[in-house]
Amino acid sequence: MFIRIAGQTALPREKENDVPELGVNIDHVATLRQARGGAEPEPLMAAMAAQLGGADGITIHLREDRRHIQDRDLVLLRQAIQVRLNLEMAATNEMTGIAIANRVDMVTLVPEKRQELTTEGGLDVRGNLKGLKKHISTLKKAGIEVSLFVDPDTDQVRASLDAGADCVEIHTGCYANARGRRVVKEELLRIITASEEAVDLKLRLNAGHGLNYLNVREIALIPCMQELNIGHSIVSRAVFVGMERAVREMKELIRL
Known about the structure:
Blueprint: E1 21-25, H1 27-36, H2 43-52, E2 57-61, H3 71-80, E3 84-89, H4 93-101, E4 106-109, H5 129-141, E5 145-150, H6 154-163, E6 167-171, H7 173-177, H8 181-200, E7 204-208, H9 216-220, E8 227-230, H10 232-241, H11 243-255
Parallel strand pairs: 1-2, 1-8, 2-3, 3-4, 4-5, 5-6, 6-7, 7-8
Helix pairs in contact: 2-3, 2-11, 5-6, 10-11
């Protein structure tokens, strides 16, 4: 199995389906709207533009405090977009009911803290196995694929299988925030190790958090990586070049 480490030369992919898909998170479009409490910018329009740019899926996080994405955004997106809709959410009865009622394609269960600016780390799956099993079972019975957002930790990956998840999304935040060649390499190796564990367990392998136009290629080149979920960087780029082009540029980097 070939792995590209930062600074080394990448070998070409063997086939086109080795390229991960791109899920575009539009939460920060809603954050800008909520800053003024008005109607602009409209997250649905951002999703439609992302779709035109080649997004394979749209990701939103409906938080319990509704700080950015609102329930009406979920309803409108479910009605309008033609690509996969991935709902990030806390493992609660309310959110499980909302996911089922709106027939989302996929749920990614994430931890939530009231004071955090954004999700700060992965779920403690092993420590919350019983509760997670209940929500995962309910969602899967409704025909919804379930992913767990976990740190690059093999024990948490194994626990995700025990919980009944279909997929893990490896938290790439520490890698994205790392500074210095040695630290970046260490964090990348942690992600690679956790990814290999997920593949061995036959879990679908996704990754996300903090990925941008400068660091995404190393993660995209991990064998069997199936989807990258990226939001803030794409929305930031879209301020200058538009959403459609920002998504297209990210897709081009992932394909290299």
